[in-house]
Specification:
The chain is of the alpha/beta class. The chain contains ten helices and eleven strands. Strand 8 and strand 9 form a beta hairpin. Helix 5 runs antiparallel to helix 7. The radius of gyration is 18 Å and the shape is globular. The relative contact order is 0.17.
Length: 257
């Protein structure tokens, strides 16, 4: 499918997503306590026999597995566009247990120093893909076309760029054990040891990806041709059960999550 048609389809998806978001205000006004639970694991809707370097697994994380309506619709929409992919989800406690089990004491010690949930998720996404491979997406991200078509069969990595051409980290596709992920992992660990952890963007976030991939020949695509975020949902719906809200609103971001 041509990029122009994918862009057009993505535009239609954005309109539908904004309608879902608008209607969700009324839904949660009538049902203020209603939440939808995300599974820790969901099998593919159907299996593909095609072998690909990037494993058919989608990874996501959040501070809770109990979601508002628009976030849950976002999840269901992604499942619809990735029918041959299994789904894996971890809450905050699961992330820590995963890193403690799968990585060295040094890595876990670095991770444990991070008190900002967003920065923890930044580091975890690199670690889980380096260990197992697959596709990471932020909880508010959604595909704009079928994932099988976005990730070509021979791809070993795929990163997205946002307006201005910078690489973002809200969508990452990779086979396990890549040199690029290792570079990111090493830099994040050094940053944790030496930097102000309140500077999430530069310490654990997109800044790390931009530096690690600068001048490198890697597969990239515009976000509008692959994955967007924040259309089905917004900060209100995402942090409705978190009194302090998003980490940027916490008076002491270096403190507890």
């Amino acid at each position: 499918m041509g990029k122009a048609l994918i862009f057009l389809f993505g535009g239609v998806v954005k309109i539908v997503a904004h309608i879902v978001k608008f209607l969700s205000y009324g839904f949660h006004f009538i049902f203020p306590k209603k939440r939808f639970r995300l599974p820790k694991h969901a099998a593919p809707l159907f299996r593909s026999r095609q072998q690909t370097p990037i494993p058919r697994t989608i990874w996501q994380t959040n501070y809770t597995d109990r979601l508002t309506l628009p976030l849950y619709v976002n999840y269901l929409f992604n499942r619809l566009l990735s029918p041959t992919f299994e789904y894996r989800f971890m809450i905050t406690e699961d992330r820590a247990e995963f890193i403690k089990t799968e990585y060295s004491e040094e890595v876990f010690k670095c991770y444990s120093k991070i008190k900002i949930g967003a920065a923890q998720a930044d580091f975890w996404r690199v670690l889980v893909l380096q260990k197992h491979g697959g596709v990471y997406m932020d909880i508010d991200a959604h595909m704009v076309w079928f994932l099988n078509a976005i990730i070509k069969p021979g791809y070993e990595e795929l990163f997205i760029t946002i307006r201005g051409g910078d690489v973002s980290n809200y969508f990452i596709a990779s086979k396990p054990g890549t040199a690029h992920l290792q570079t990111m992992m090493d830099e994040i660990m050094e940053n944790i040891k030496r930097r102000d952890l309140a500077d999430v963007w530069d310490t654990t976030g997109p800044g790390v990806f931009i530096r690690a991939l600068a001048g490198k020949n890697v597969n990239k695509t515009r976000n509008v041709h692959a994955c967007l975020q924040g259309n089905f949902t917004n900060e209100y719906f995402q942090y409705i059960d978190k009194k302090e809200g998003k980490w940027i609103h916490v008076s002491n971001p270096g403190g507890s999550t």
